[in-house]
Amino acid sequence: MCLQCDGWSATKVDRHINHLIEQHGWAFQYVEDPNLRRCFGYTVGLTKLGQPEFLVRGLDMADTNTMFTGFASTVIKRHEHFDNGHTAHSVDGRLLYFSTMHGATKYALGAYARYGHGTRVLEIHFMDREVPPATPALMYKALATPAVHGPISGRKN
């Protein structure tokens, strides 16, 4: 359940997200729906580092957290950069493709509210084993298993 659904005020949620960003360098917001295909999550905090935010659809909150923990950690700790056309492997070996999300203002509301139109969002797509030949993609090595802890915005501690 979301924090506001649990009775938190918008101000208290905002302070909580700010704390997570201060503590970890990032947080994420997750939008739940009974239909998993309509669920999505996005990072908040990477923009202030000059990096794009990430958005993924169709995963539950735990899998979204695992994915974002891996990618945000590589951005923050190893100073890796992800951009349109890049690829990576998920922890289960599936190929992921990053594309600039046009119309992201409708989805990544928390990121845009904090950072304005300087916010860039990369949507993470699950691909078949191979990138289509017409796609100029850079291959990233598979990410190590992400830490089992990480910021989970939207859950009480």
Structure description:
- The chain has a six-stranded mixed beta sheet, with helices on both faces.
- The chain is built from three helices and six strands, in the order H-E-E-E-H-E-E-H-E.
- The longest helix has 17 residues, at 61-77.
- The model is unreliable at 131-157 (pLDDT under 50).
- It has one domain (10-126).
- The protein has 157 residues and is of the alpha+beta class.
Strands ordered across the widest β-sheet = 1-2-3-6-5-4
Question: What's the main sheet like?
Answer: 6 strands, mixed
The percent range for strand residues is: 15-25%
Taking pLDDT < 50 over at least 5 consecutive residues as the criterion, the unreliable ranges are 131-157
Number of helices: 3
Mean pLDDT: 82
How far apart the termini lie comes to 13 Å
Secondary-structure element pattern, one letter each: HEEEHEEHE
Based on helices, strands and strand pairing, what is the structural class? alpha+beta
Number of domains: 1
Radius of gyration: 15 Å
Helix content: 10-25%
Overall outline = globular
Can you count the beta strands? 6
Quick take:
The chain contains three helices and six strands; from the N terminus they run αβββαββαβ.
Which keywords apply here?
alpha+beta, 25% helix, single chain, 157 residues, disordered C terminus, six-stranded mixed sheet, 19% strand
Write the SSE topology:
Elements: H1 10-24, E1 27-31, E2 40-44, E3 53-57, H2 61-77, E4 87-89, E5 95-100, H3 109-115, E6 121-126
